[in-house]
């Protein structure tokens, strides 16, 4: 059986990846109340170092960025120390890992915020749905719109987080500008009704995300080790499109990102975890062609689909999320055609090693070098 081109080495920028498989960022909510990832996270990530590139679970840049219980951060020394042990394990297993930088904005709850404050957003618009707090699920609240003069402070939080990621030894960082978290709340016209220089025109709505990109690329000496995640077609939370003209908005976003020499753009094609169908008005191939760096495709991919997308020039790398939960040796299974295990949902968020770092490979436990 010839080896699939997806499973062969590839060079993007100055990085040589073992294969074109990327482990998608997966929040697993195993950190402690101080946002410190557990020691056994090194086993979990180490077992998955068969991916050409791992993107870490979304990691809060500041206490204000927190929107889910038990998620990790990258603002304190204890967090940096724990992450550096995880990164060392991945490197000992010939893996590469980027840290995903996260601020959840309005997708949070006062119980998760310092001093029980309201979560912040571009505008005071309540999201649908519930927040995952230490006390269970709680309905979202109406956030507080950030004052214009607060925004530079959040850009500085991103800068510090990017510096801490560098100190922890990460190979790069991915800016989370997808799934309706803070950056996307500024990008979309349904969640950004501001009248200052951060709202209104597309150029204004992109201003804050691009300030973040500038700060992060300054820390990393340019864009060569910086990627960004976008979800132009998502409707979550809720059912209605989040932008009145997503292609104009995201076309302008991608064009502006070209000014920073980013390593890649990582897109969620269709609606996360639901469908690869793309609504009218969003054209992923056009975005891919306009972007000058590499392109990571994602959402409900299989090896066959990835091969087809590669052959058609639709993406360079392919990220797998849910399949990595219960298949630590995903690349081996894809290579051999072995069936994939499925992780029951109760294991996704919260708990300890069970359903997290104890999934066997197809040939028994997956060894991790230390
Ligand atoms: C348990 C779980 C946690 C996730 N956490 C994140 C996250 O931290 N950051 C992110 O950008 N996407 C996150 N996602 C979305 C995935 O990265 C991915 O886009 C989605 O699962 C679709 O890909 P898949 O069909 O290969 O699973 C998460 C998805 C799941 C199922």
UniProtKB/TrEMBL annotation:
Pfam families: Oxidored_FMN. GO terms for cellular component: cytosol. InterPro entries: Aldolase_TIM, OxRdtase_FMN_N, Oye-like. Its cofactor is FMN. Residues 6-339 form the NADH:flavin oxidoreductase/NADH oxidase N-terminal domain. Keywords: Oxidoreductase. One of its GO terms (molecular function) is FMN binding. Belongs to the NADH:flavin oxidoreductase/NADH oxidase family. This is N-ethylmaleimide reductase.
């Amino acid at each position: 059986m010839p080896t699939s081109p997806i499973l062969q080495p590839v060079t993007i920028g100055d990085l040589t990846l073992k294969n074109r498989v990327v482990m998608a960022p997966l929040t697993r909510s195993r950190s402690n109340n101080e946002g410190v990832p557990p020691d056994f996270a090194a086993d979990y990530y180490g077992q998955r170092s068969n991916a050409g590139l791992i993107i870490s679970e979304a990691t809060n840049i500041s206490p204000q960025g927190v929107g889910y219980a038990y998620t990790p951060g990258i603002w304190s020394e204890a967090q940096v120390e724990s992450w550096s042990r995880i990164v060392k394990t991945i490197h000992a297993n010939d893996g590469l890992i980027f840290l995903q930088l996260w601020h959840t904005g309005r997708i949070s709850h006062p119980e998760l915020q310092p001093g029980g404050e309201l979560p912040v957003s571009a505008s005071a618009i309540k999201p649908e749905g519930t927040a995952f707090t230490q006390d269970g699920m709680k309905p979202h609240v109406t956030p507080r719109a950030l004052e214009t003069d607060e925004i530079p402070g959040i850009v500085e939080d991103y800068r510090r987080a990017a510096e801490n990621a560098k100190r922890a030894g990460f190979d790069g960082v991915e800016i989370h500008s997808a799934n309706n978290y803070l950056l996307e709340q500024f990008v979309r016209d349904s969640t950004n009704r501001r009248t200052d220089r951060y709202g209104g025109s597309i150029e204004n709505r992109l201003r804050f995300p691009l300030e973040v990109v500038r700060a992060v690329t300054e820390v990393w000496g340019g864009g060569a080790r910086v990627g960004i995640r976008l979800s132009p077609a998502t409707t979550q939370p809720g059912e209605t499109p989040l932008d009145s003209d997503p292609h104009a908005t995201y076309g302008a976003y991608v064009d502006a990102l070209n000014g920073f020499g980013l390593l890649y753009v990582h897109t969620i094609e269709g609606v996360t975890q639901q469908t690869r169908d793309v609504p009218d008005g969003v054209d992923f191939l056009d975005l891919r062609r306009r972007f000058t760096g590499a392109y990571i495709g994602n959402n409900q991919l299989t090896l066959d689909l990835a091969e087809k997308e590669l052959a058609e020039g639709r993406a360079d790398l392919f990220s797998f999320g849910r399949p990595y939960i219960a298949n630590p040796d995903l690349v081996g299974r894809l290579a051999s055609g072995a069936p994939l295990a499925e992780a029951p949902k109760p294991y996704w968020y919260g708990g300890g090693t069970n359903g997290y770092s104890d999934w066997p490979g197809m040939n028994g436990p997956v060894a991790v070098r230390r």
